[in-house]
Design goal:
mainly beta, three-stranded antiparallel sheet, 3 strands, NAC domain-containing protein, DNA-binding, nucleus, transcription regulation, DNA binding
């Protein structure tokens, strides 16, 4: 398998990844952002993402900061992540919706 730096790097300071959202609880809506070395904490409020041509709302952006160790005693780092999600009309249909 190729290294992440070969497949996800845009430039020296920006990398892009796609992943499925991990739920903290099987029946809940909270997202699990814990890692083996720390956790990602959301900061501020979600921001709207607009289509540059139609000005239509296409999604939302959440800003997260990485903290080392475990909450509530985490140590803030300089790592920032922007999490993007599509709004409902733009979501691809779920597999169970196929006939």
């Amino acid at each position: 398998m190729r290294a992440f730096s070969e497949v996800a790097k845009l430039n020296a300071t920006e990398w892009y990844f796609f992943s499925f959202r991990d739920r903290k609880y099987a029946t809940g809506y909270r997202t699990n952002r814990a890692t083996t070395s720390g956790y990602w904490k959301a900061t501020g409020k979600d921001r709207t993402v607009f289509d540059p041509i139609t000005a239509e709302v296409v999604g939302m952006r959440k800003t997260l900061v990485f903290y080392r160790n475990r909450a509530p005693n985490g140590i803030k780092t300089g790592w920032i992540m922007h999490e993007f999600r599509l709004e409902t009309p733009h979501m691809p249909p779920k597999i169970q919706h196929y006939v």
